[in-house]
Amino acid sequence: MSLAIVHSRAQLGVEAPAVTVEAHLANGLPSLALVGLPETAVKESKDRVRSAILNSGFDFPPRRITLNLAPADLPKDGGRFDLAIALGILAASGQVPADALDGIECLGELALSGAVRPVQGVLPAALAARAAGRALVVPRANAEEACLASGLRVLAIEHLLELAAHLSGQTPLAPYQAHGLPSQPRPYPDLADVQGQQAAKRALLVAAAGAHNLLLSGPPGTGKTLLASRLPGLLPPLDEHEALEVAAIHSVVSHAPLDTWPQRPFRQPHHSASGPALVGGGSRPRPGEITLAHQGVLFLDELPEFDRKVLEVLREPLESGEIVIARAHDKVRFPARFQLVAAMNPCPCGYLGDAGGRCQCTPDRIQRYRAKLSGPLLDRIDLHLTVAREATALQPSAGDGPSSAEAAAHVADARQRQLARQGRANAFLDLDGVRRHCALEEDDRRWLEKACERLGMSLRAAHRVLKVARSLADLEARPRLARHHLAEALQYRPGGAA
User: Fold this and answer.
1) Do residues 317 and 279 lie in contact, with contact meaning Cβ atoms separated by under 8 Å?
2) Would you say residue 337 has pLDDT above 90?
3) How many domains are there within the chain?
4) Does residue 367 lie in a domain region?
5) CA distances from residue 180 to 136, 183, 437, 444 in whole angstroms, order as listed
6) CA angle, corner 466, sides to 464 and 467, nearest 5?
7) Burial degree of 284 (CB within 10 A; 0-12, 13-18, 19+)
8) Can you give the pLDDT at residue 257?
9) CA distance readout (Å), 349 to 221, 343, 356, 362, 391
10) Residue 132: how many CB atoms within 10 A of its CB?
């Protein structure tokens, strides 16, 4: 047979679109043409594949070879197609049976010796292969990752000869059995280690219960970073679907998404990060920090020190839970359902309001410092809290507040009520959800309207107050919002404590 078809997968963002590798042998002068919008690394596969076939003891057909990677309008890059290309040439030349290729998909880069090297983005390809009902052939180093897609038949190989022997029926490969997958995530830092700061711990509990965004403001050394690092340990564990989403994102960035399986991510980019580093981008779009924080926490320390244009890009994903990177020929959509925790100082020197009088900042400097943050961005942060300095105690008493395990159990109960009632966390309620699940008594409604008017709140901010109040009620297992829930929620808005 002079024509063979092998199935493979490309990488486009965090998706794995199907690619059909067609190999055709025709009479004529020996040549090899590769078409189908291949980028440089794919074009170079011709030489890798030739050497791998010869060094594996097969014959490289001295004929006119045409390789087509379909669909033709989908860019292909990387060495992930090497194995499929080699298999197509061997099947078209009759050295392996072509009819054995129908039920498999192949991923892998070939060494000149015929050894198979690992590639990135295996988990999205594994999920897509499972949906297509095919087995997946991967390098052995990627087999554990591919097995995260439960129910998928994974064939792991270390050399081209192993796959050829399997397809020829000489030495069939047994499906790879996963072993060593971590069943429990690594422990998070404990909330009980944070000395004092009871008000901040309460805000952290509310933020975790409803998936609300949080802004901590206070002088240096008050524990803002310490508090933020405890938030992932308060959140409910990832379910299988969420864990696969997180692992798939890390799969396209690195070779080892198993390192943090199934843990919620905690990302802390430096304030010098560029726009593409934070939200994703590049000529070949790659995930940014907000996507790497999907289903987890994005912590932005020294918030006013970030470039304002960079911060403004956060406004859309904070609302929609995704980011769209548009390029001339394509659009790539990345998930970005993260929980934002930000920290800042009250002034440039950080000591505004300090009892020792250390702050020397002029009102003009303070105004310029705070003006780096736009109103629309601050409006999207549900909880604003001032973290005050605590009295110095080098040997704090044991049991200073709840542990992470105790707080997480409380949060899990509140989150379960939300899922049973509305199918999502309170922070993600739309307008109709706010009307249905945050209903108020008439007196409470009038009271809240007057309070929002006095504080100059936008309608969006008022809705966020209702969502926070709903989370407070869920923490108390109350079916309806009460006045004290609204009052506490207002305390978390700028000017609400006045």
Assistant:
1) yes
2) yes
3) 3
4) yes
5) 20, 9, 44, 55
6) 65
7) middle
8) 64
9) 13, 14, 14, 11, 21
10) 13
The region that residue 108 occupies, defined by phi over 0 for left and psi between -120 and 50 for alpha, beta otherwise, is left
Least confident of 99-113, 346-360, 404-418, 452-466: 346-360
For residues 411 and 449, state if they share a domain: no
- Domain hosting residue 216, numbered range: 191-389+399-417
Q: Looking at the structure, do residues 95 and 115 belong to the same domain, yes or no? A: yes
Condensed to tens digits (0 to 9), the pLDDT of residues 477-493 reads 999 999 999 999 999 98
- Indicate the pLDDT class of residue 180, thresholds 50, 70 and 90: low
Q: Could you write out the three-class secondary structure of 68-130?
A: EEECCCCCECCCCCHHHHHHHHHHHCCCCCHHHHCCEEECCEECCCCEEECCCCHHHHHHHHH
The tokens describing 69, both together, are 């990677």
Q: How confident is the model over 261-319, as pLDDT tens digits?
A: 788 999 999 999 988 899 888 777 889 999 999 999 999 999 999 999 999 999 999 99
> Does 179 map to a domain?
no
Confidence band, pLDDT 50/70/90 cuts, at residue 350:
confident
Q: Is the pLDDT of residue 259 over 70?
A: no
**One domain for residues 138 and 60:** yes
Q: Is there a domain that residue 174 lies in? A: no
CA separation for the pair 482, 471 (Å, rounded): 12
Annotate 239-288 with DSSP letters as a single string: -HHHHHHHHHHHHTT-S-GGGGTTPPPEE---TT--HHHHH-BTTTTB--
Radius of gyration of the chain (CA): 28
Shared-domain flag, residues 91 and 66 = yes
Q: Write down the residue that tokens 């790539």 correspond to.
A: 332
Cβ-based burial of 282 (10 A; exposed 0-12, middle 13-18, buried ≥19): exposed
Do the Cβ atoms of 6 and 91 come closer than 8 Å?
A: yes
Q: Which two tokens stand for residue 386?
A: 């001032």
Number of H helices and E strands in the chain, helices first, is 20, 16
